[in-house]
Design goal:
Largest sheet: none
Number of strands: 0
Order of helices and strands: HHHH
Radius of gyration: 18 Å
CATH topology: Helix Hairpins
CATH architecture: Orthogonal Bundle
Number of helices: 4
Length: about 110
């Protein structure tokens, strides 16, 4: 087993473990906002590790360029889409867990009813 294969295995295991923790967070967290946080933040990091492992494994320039482009697209679209969904959930009145003590959108007056 070469050093490259060891790095590929480590990155795959890290990516898979982070994705597993993200899935557990989806099941365990109490409200829609925390679930979105778990699915986006951890998934982005997990996908990053898996794509880096794939690029290292194949080692071809064209495949690496495509994987880097995919990573950049995922890195920007996933958190942005989740932020928009969270804002829509807040506007629609999705309940928060009782441990949430700060609601900046409500305090800013942005969501005042007309």
């Amino acid at each position: 087993m070469s050093i490259l294969e060891i790095f590929v295995a480590i990155f795959l295991i890290l990516g898979t473990a982070i994705r597993l923790l993200s899935s557990i967070g989806l099941l365990r967290f109490g409200d829609v906002y925390l679930r979105m946080h778990a699915s986006t933040k951890a998934s982005t990091l997990g996908i990053g590790f898996i794509l880096v492992a794939t690029a290292l494994y194949f080692g071809e320039a064209l495949i690496t360029i495509k994987l880097v482009a995919l990573l950049v697209i995922y890195f920007f679209t996933s958190p942005t889409g989740t932020q928009v969904l969270a804002h829509a959930a807040h506007i629609s009145g999705a309940p928060m867990v009782k441990e949430t003590w700060l609601d900046e959108l409500k305090e800013s007056g942005e969501l005042d009813e007309d």
